[in-house]
Amino acid sequence: MNQARKDEDQQLVARTQAGDAAAFDQLVVKYTPRLYGLVYNMTSNHEDTNDLLQDVFSKAYKAIRGFRGKSSFYTWIHSIAVNMTLNFLKKRGRRFHLSLDDVDSSIQNDKEFLELTATSSPVREADLSELQRRLNEAMMKLSDEHRAVVTMFHIQGMPHAEISKILRVSEGTVRSRLFYANRQLQNYLDEFRKNPVA
Amino acid sequence: MDEFDDNEIAKLLRLKRYEQPPPAYFDNFLHEFHRRQRDELLRQPLWRICLERTHDFMFRLNVPSLTSYPAAIAAVLICAAVISLRIYQEPEIARVAVRSRPALSATTNAEGEWTLASPVATRVFTTRSLRNSSESARTHRAAAPPRYVLDSVPVSYEPTFKF
After folding, report:
1. What is d(CA B155, CA B153) in angstroms, rounded to the nearest whole number?
2. A135 and B33 in contact by Cβ < 8 A?
3. For A45-73, what is each residue's pLDDT tens digit?
4. Mind listing the pLDDT tens digit for each residue in A147-170?
5. CATH architecture group of domain A108-194
6. Do A58 and B36 touch (CB under 8 A)?
7. Inter-residue contact A41 to A155 (CB < 8 Å)
8. Does residue A80 contact residue A59 with C-beta atoms inside 8 Å?
């Protein structure tokens, strides 16, 4: 983890604890995009993500006085977000509808996107946007805990150790959940490739 | 037939980073956060606002560090309790004495030395002497034969016996 970012966060946290609300605003601005990605990919719904993020920062603001810095602020705020989202998903159950955000136009310059669409692969055979839609559906078929791990590892690019701290499980559990989730996703997408109209 | 491998799934998942909310969303998020905080504050009952303010005040004074001396605080509280109990109990005796005195004097003033209203057993004696020493001296000077006082009633006041 970037040490400069950690130090900056510590200073902002200390200022917030001393009563400087503007310092917390800086933390909100800094972490909103990242936490949005995390919560959104777990819920697949923009409105739910927005409400959850507001609640996450509200809870963090109330609890920040009790934050003693045993973990980094990054880990702390991510664990609040993940736990609140998991609780929300348990209450919501299977009653949800996908409300997917638009894909940012900068994807056209992404190296992996170019590779996937240009090289000979199963992806090229299917329309990529349709494949993405299927992938989202497949993600929602995973259990909440498995989806959380996939989101943090594959989409957010977090290392296993960081995920294990956030979820408070062992690294072995993280790897095991990832392995199982990958198999599940692979099965769903293979099925789609075999029956594209299904 | 080709199949998706882990690497390709990972690449597909990474592309999900590009799913973004409308551009103005992040700009408005902080304003929305402030608005919700204000609304939440207005919805709270007064007692909770007071409690939070007190909590903030205590936190700034670093009062929790003082609670690291619980024995001292407990000792002070026990001492205070014992002292206050003693103070509370002592005036109770004094009050009884004060109350009983006017009863005596009232009886004396209104009824004289005897009260017929009360039974003999509750006869009340005045604590004040009926005649002081100077009066007594004057009497002795004026009247030649000395008179003797028995109990608290002068003998001369007793009705004379007639045989």
Report:
1. 6
2. no
3. 889 999 999 999 999 999 998 898 889 99
4. 999 999 999 999 999 999 999 999
5. Orthogonal Bundle (1.10)
6. yes
7. yes
8. yes
Rounded-to-10 torsion of CA B146, B147, B149, B155: 170
Question: Strands B19-20, B149-150: parallel, antiparallel or unpaired by DSSP?
Answer: unpaired
Show the low-confidence residues of chain A (pLDDT under 70).
Answer: 1, 94-127, 193, 195-198
Instruction: Give A72→chain B minimum CA distance, Å.
Output: 22
The matching CATH number, chosen from 3.10.129.10, 1.20.1050.10, 1.10.1740.10, 3.30.460.10, for A3-92 is: 1.10.1740.10
Q: How many CA atoms lie within 13 A of A113 on its CB side?
A: 17
CA distance A187 to chain B (A): 9
Q: How far is B75 from chain A (nearest CA, A)?
A: 29
Describe chain A by its helix, strand, coil percentages, rounded to 5.
Answer: 80, 0, 20
Same fold, A3-92 and A108-194: no
Residues of chain B positioned with their CB less than 8 A from the CB of A51: none
Per the CB < 8 A criterion, the answer to whether A137 and A126 are in contact is no
- With both helix axes pointing from N to C terminus, report the angle between A3-17 and A21-43 in degrees, rounded to the nearest 10: 120
* ipTM summary value: 0.76
Place of tokens 């001296």: B137
B1 to chain A: closest CA residue = A122
pLDDT band at B54 (very low <50, low <70, confident <90, very high): confident
Which residue, A151, A40, A153, is CA-closest to A103?
A: A40
